[in-house]
Amino acid sequence: MSGQAQKKTPKKPTQAQLIERLGLVADMDFIVHLPLRYEDQTQIYEIASLAIGEYAQIEATVIQQTVIQRPRKQLQVLVRDHTGELLVRLLHFYPSQIQLFAEGATLRLRGEVRRGFHTALEMVHPKVSQAGMPLAQTLTPIYPTTDGLSQPALRKVILAALERTDLHDTLSVETRDQYGLIDFASAVTQLHYPAVEHSQALLNQTHPAWNRIKFDELLAQQLSLAAARARRALLKAPSIAASTRLIAQLTAALSFTLTGAQQRVIAEIAHDLQRTQPMNRLLQGDVGSGKTIVAAFAAVQAIEHGFQVALMAPTELLAEQHQQKLSAWLSPLGIQVDWLSGSLTPAQRRKANERVALGQSHLVVGTQALIQESVQFHQLGLVILDEQHRFGVEQRLELSRKGTLSMAHLGSDWLPHQLNMSATPIPRTLAMTFYSDLDVSVIDELPPGRTPIQTKLLAADRRFEMMERIRLAVQEGQQVYWVCPLVEESETLQLQTAVDTYEQMAHELAPLRVGLLHGRMSATEKNHVMDLFRSAELDVLVATTVIEVGVDVPNATIMVIEHAERYGLAQLHQLRGRVGRGHKASFCILMYQNPLSAIARERLRAMYETTDGFEIARRDLAIRGPGEFLGVRQSGQMLLRFANLEQDSGLILQAKECAAHLYQHHPKQAAAHVQRWLGAKEEFLRG
Ligand code: ADP
Ligand code: MG
Fold it and tell me: pLDDT tens, 415-433?
């Protein structure tokens, strides 16, 4: 190890590195690195005219300076102009700042005006400059930046890029006229050199310059989706005829009747499989809506015609459950279901790989172990991803590639059909913009006989009430999940919390039988605990979010989530979906710790008010923005930086229409536009 590497403090990054960290590489990256907000440094405000919460620049003279020792050491400076007084507070300071704020000094100060404790108004850590300097001529743009890169330094490189770059328009005059857009050069120029008189429109993004930028961004996205669709249309897949035999047998053997929604999506998928283009379908259905059986029907159609099917699930626990369920349904039909996971011994794995390669396994269920290099299929015609949003783009592609390899004798442009399943509903607006190269099927109906889950909110100091409730439920033969607090910052702490909660519960609830399930347990241990819970040898299962996905124990009727305020909405909804799977009334108790943040309050309210996954997703979108709904492929590059899906839905429609037209009639213009906005990133999207 070199001496350098042992040093504790890492080397300070250079300005170039910081700039790159912001994703700024090509000139165009700089040009569309647009301000987050604007500050008005074009005028000096009078103290008497300041309003709380406003960002302002004043010039004032120090009349008194005090170093306060309690409660914490800080520097307080009282300043005055000819209209009034204001208190400046520095919560930490250097000796040089004591000099700077010497009594009698006149300074220019810039910052947010706050309500003061001692005086009516104060500024905390304002920016300080010399009084009497010339004022800015335009508003001052404030850019998204990173630690260590100052606004002036960043502004300088951005404006330099703006100077040297050719800002020709990628849209023709006709297109601009049609959609009422200003030209690109003037749009970006106005955003980087914001005129004072436009300050309101610039701030609330109603200025025509913002409109142009949002339109351009949406257009690039729509064009790139159109290209993805067109590329897809050139790909081939084996046409798999409808089942004439096995599906009838499966239907006859089922212990329940399919819901109308299930029948509809099964038909949609069956139809897709018959096409000579690869299916790319997203099956959305709320937790408990019965997606697994739909997957089984699709699998059976493929298997009846000699194709193999692979089903990949994100966790061992979930894969194991699928394996059990699907074997129970399909083995009686003579279908060989195999299992591939990290927990197999090398010998078992070799055996399984062999069966898969020879085509003796018809359906292979597993975790990411399915995409390991050693796995080769004989003829993989259909891949199914459960909880698809949990997989990265590479993992999704890799499974599909296995299919391509297994059909190499047909050509390299052959793909297996692909069915993606997800219980995290994607709001319609989002699906429309991000997934337009994907077909979507929705199961919008729950199997009959489910009693709706009742959700209750309970402050943490009423925990003891919960204990009584649990005892009663267990006496009646029901089972309980207890989700322990989320500790995001550390896996070790999370483990510790889980173990502590378990011990406390086992003690408090004795003689009830309490089990523990957490992410650090081996797959075998997890499965063992799940088996005990499933066979009702445990009454209460203390768990981390490992139970979030797919776990299905109909006899469990109570779900308690401790510190529910720490969980996101989608997660809470998933967790709640673990109960309400049988005929008995189920409850979800969200225990929270006061005080609640505004966002946490919103989330808990949403959970209380609705059990509809789509409504929850809509609210989640409103609370959090779109970022987290999207899988790896969409995050980053495809994510909209400027346009807002809710507010700009009108623009989205225009961009879609314009994209369709350009793509067909002006491919060169379309290519130039995509190049400008996505540049090298477009390559990435081809994946
Ligand atoms: P999810 O959509 O969350 O993956 P599952 O496929 O696990 O849901 O189904 C939840 C439960 O409902 C399972 O026990 C499943 O066997 C059962 N189920 C599925 N479809 C029906 C139906 N039509 N009628 C009754 N029960 C059903
Ligand atoms: Mg499922």
Answer: 999 999 988 766 666 665 6
First and final CA of the chain: distance in angstroms? 39
Check residue 70 and give its pLDDT: 78
Supply the pLDDT for residue 630: 44
Q: In what order do the strands lie in the sheet with 127-130?
A: 114-115, 121-124, 85-90, 74-80, 55-68, 106-112, 127-130
CA distance 476 to 61: 76
Distance 386 CA to ligand 2 centre (A): 7
Q: Tell me the pLDDT tens digit for each residue of 21-38.
A: 888 888 988 999 999 888
Measure the CA angle with vertex 416, ends 410 and 419; round to 5°: 170
CA of 482 to the centre of ligand 2 (A): 20
pLDDT at residue 44 greater than cutoff 50: yes
CATH number for 43-130: choose from 2.40.50.140, 3.30.200.20, 3.20.20.150, 2.170.130.30: 2.40.50.140
* Helix, strand, coil share of the chain (percent; to 5): 45, 15, 40
345-365: average pLDDT = 96
CA of 88 to the centre of ligand 2 (A): 57
Question: What integer best gives the mean pLDDT of the chain?
Answer: 88
pLDDT at 115 (0 to 100):
87
CATH 3.40.50.300 correct for 246-443? yes
Which own/partner contact pairs does 259-262 have at CB distance under 8 Å and 24+ positions apart? 259/290, 259/443, 259/445, 259/446, 259/447, 259/448, 260/445, 261/285, 261/289, 261/442, 261/443, 261/444, 261/445, 262/290, 262/293, 262/294, 262/443, 262/445
Ligand 1 atom closest to Cα of residue 287: 3
Find out whether the beta carbon of 272 lies less than 6 Å from any atom of ligand 1: no
Superfamily for the 453-610 domain: P-loop containing nucleotide triphosphate hydrolases (3.40.50.300)
Q: Is 288 in the pocket of ligand 1 (CB under 6 A)?
A: yes
Q: How confident is the model at residue 439 (pLDDT cuts 50, 70, 90)?
A: confident
How far is 299 from 312, CA to CA, in rounded Å?
A: 13
Q: Do domains 246-443 and 453-610 have the same CATH topology?
A: yes
Q: What's the gap in Å between 262 CA and the centre of ligand 2?
A: 14
Q: How far is the CA of 495 from the centre of ligand 2 (A)?
A: 26
Atom of ligand 1 at shortest range from CA of 554: 14
Is residue 592 scored above 70 in pLDDT? yes
Ligand 1 atom at shortest distance from the alpha carbon of 258: 23
Q: How far is the CA of 578 from the centre of ligand 2 (A)?
A: 10
Q: Which pair of structure tokens corresponds to residue 679?
A: 């540049």
Q: What ligand 1 atom has the least distance to the C-alpha of 292? A: 6
Element (H, E) at 43: none
Per-domain boundaries in the chain = 24-38+140-204, 43-130, 246-443, 453-610
Residues in the chain, total? 687
Select from 250, 251, 256, 384 the residue to mutate for testing ligand 1; criterion: most ligand atoms less than 8 Å from CB.
Answer: 256
pLDDT range class, residue 119, cuts 50, 70, 90: confident
In the structure, what pLDDT confidence band is assigned to residue 81 with cuts at 50, 70 and 90? Answer: very high
- pLDDT tens-digit readout, 641-670: 788 776 787 898 899 899 999 999 999 999
33 lines ligand 1 (CB under 6 A): no
| Span of 192-206, 285-299, 526-540, 650-664 with lowest mean pLDDT | 192-206
